[in-house]
Design brief:
A hairpin with a 6-residue loop joins strand 10 and strand 11. It is globular and about 75 Å long. The strands form four sheets. A five-stranded mixed sheet has the order 8-5-10-11-12. A three-stranded antiparallel sheet has the order 1-3-2. Strands 4-9 form a two-stranded parallel sheet. The N and C termini lie close together (12 Å). It has two domains: 284 residues, no CATH class; 44 residues, no CATH class. It is 31% helix and 34% strand. The chain has nine helices and twelve strands. By secondary structure, it is an alpha+beta fold. Helix 2 crosses helix 9 and helix 5 runs parallel beside helix 9.
Length: 364
């Protein structure tokens, strides 16, 4: 019987189109090997150092990914090392040094990593890729987009208090004889003022716009499909749960606050359980205002992404994969392009991270 996995991304985000993702990355690698002569490395020793430096470059790239992907890489690292030129397109020497006394040769190279090929190798080794098509998990996801519409700021409210006391020193009239006798007197007055108060600060009032994003939807669908999961439109799952899994509830929660409400999550979990789907995932993507990148002068938009996958097969939901909160920045010549790049980068990275964690735990 196939394991059915519903991945629900309630990801609220703000209108952004498509971004192109780098299929390669340039990473430095280093290797130090023992050599037979103090005069320098032989051609075969230089070739060995070059291969080790390329392997090191790939490992440095993997070290900057999420922990789940690093665990997956450990399973195929020998295969990668044996076929390193499949994953490194080119390498140029940055520096090289021979230690004649220690008889060692150190090589530093700049390598162009074939990221797409490496990801394909990781996916090919995943549990879902080694499962028959009929036994693979079903995945459904919801993407909604949130971006800030207006931010209203308030001046501080200041309250001041002023307390004043006056003291007078002098001589009283002598009335003991019953007669009025006046005499000169000296009067000294002292005035003391004490001030204090309080300042009340009010948080900014932020309003949001929630929209759907077909471009982001396509990115997530593509990533999950390439990972081997069977992607199902969330609208079908919503109908099967009689509205307990409610897409509009996720939108409404996130437009008014920073979290999905417990009632929305509980109802979604109950509905997904009733539909006999053991896994549920949700997430949020939050788009900030646009500013200018000081280095390039291009428009810049930041996106914060958070998502989780829950296992609903037990008495309580258990988290089996999670992302964030992580922030990504997108650049572009215009605000729309910058938003597009930020949105799609965040969506792709979130999907990749969830897939990596599910693969590492054998969820297929």
């Amino acid at each position: 019987m196939p394991i059915r996995l519903t991945v629900l991304f309630a990801i609220i985000f703000g209108c952004m189109p498509a971004a192109s993702f780098a299929a390669t990355q340039t990473i430095k690698g280093m290797a130090t090997i023992s050599i037979s002569s103090s005069d320098g490395p032989s051609p075969s020793e230089m070739a060995m150092a070059m291969k080790e430096a390329k392997i090191n470059a790939v490992e440095r790239y993997v070290a900057n990914t999420n922990s789940a992907e690093q665990r997956n890489y450990d399973l195929i690292k020998q295969k990668v090392a044996a076929n390193i030129d499949n994953y490194v397109l080119s390498s140029s020497i940055v520096s090289q040094q021979t230690d004649k006394q220690a008889k060692t040769y150190t090589l530093v190279v700049s390598s162009e990593i074939n990221v797409s090929e490496l990801e394909n190798a990781l996916q090919a080794n995943s549990a879902v890729s080694n499962t028959s098509q009929s036994s693979r998990s079903y995945i459904t996801f919801i993407f909604v987009a949130r971006h800030q519409n207006t931010v209203q700021s308030f001046d501080n409210e200041v309250t001041k208090h002023n307390n004043s006391t006056t003291a007078e020193n002098g001589m009283d009239m002598n009335a003991s004889t019953g007669t009025k006798k006046g005499y000169a007197s000296t009067t000294n007055k002292y005035n003391t003022v004490t001030t204090g108060g309080s300042v009340i600060q009010r948080a900014n009032k932020v309003t949001y716009t929630v929209t759907s994003s077909d471009a982001v939807n396509d990115v997530i669908s593509n990533q999950l499909s390439e990972a081997g999961y069977q992607v199902v439109d969330a609208a079908f799952v919503q109908q099967m749960t009689n509205g307990k899994l409610n897409i509009d509830s996720f939108k409404s929660d996130f437009v008014h606050g920073n979290d999905i409400s417990p009632s929305t999550l509980i109802n979604a979990a109950l509905g997904v359980q009733e539909a006999k789907v053991p896994y549920l995932a949700y997430g949020t993507l939050d788009v900030g205002f646009t500013d200018t990148d000081p280095t390039t002068g291009l428009k810049r938009v930041y996106v914060t992404v958070t998502s989780k996958v829950y296992d609903l097969t037990g008495r309580f939901p258990v988290t089996v994969a999670s992302v964030g909160p992580v922030q990504y920045a997108g650049l572009g010549p215009s605000e729309d392009v910058a938003r597009t790049n930020a949105l799609q980068l965040a969506a792709k990275t979130a999907a990749d991270s969830l897939v990596s964690e599910m693969n590492a735990k054998g969820i297929h």
